[in-house]
Amino acid sequence: MHYTEEMMIMKMFKSEEGFTGLEAAIVLIAFVVVAAVFSYVVLGAGFFTTQKAQETVYSSVDMASSSLEVLGDVYGWGNTAGTAIDGVQFVVGLTAGGSSVDFAQTTMVFTNTSQIVDLDKDVQITSSSSDVVNVTARDSLDADTWYIIDIQNDDTDKGALLENQEQFTIFAKLGTAVVTPNEAFTIEVKPPVGASYGINRKGPARVNDVNILY
Asked: Membrane-spanning regions, if any (predicted)?
């Protein structure tokens, strides 16, 4: 009887050892699975964070840089008295790799040595307009207003969206403030997205009908 009890006890010990080993294996497998899932989640979160960081950087670069540039010379049109510049004409295009600019949502500000004037946009320039080019004679244009008077490199689209390779000729008719001889001035072009673009020039020493401004 004593021998039988001893054998039973030994058998129980062996069973408990076997069960404990099985439990350990299950726990180990579960740990490996959980660790793998956790690593996948952390790795995925890392990729997501990196992507968002890149998007933020690209967005910041877009906001900090301007897509616009002036092409060629800036011209000043003299008033009838020949005493000041009352019209400024320039051509704008997109920089290399620059995003399209909606001029229906663009604003301009004129600044000389004594005044700051918000220039109105030609009423013809709207997002829905298929032709924003104003062909009215310069002398008949409204003061303190800017116009698109020509679009180059796209014969089929005369809308307000400046796209790749297109060139918009802008004419700003001054009134409240003009440019006197040797006076410095700035026309700031503010697109809806991206940094503003400042055109800094100076009036000529002698005002002619048409003047190249430097």
From this structure: 21-48
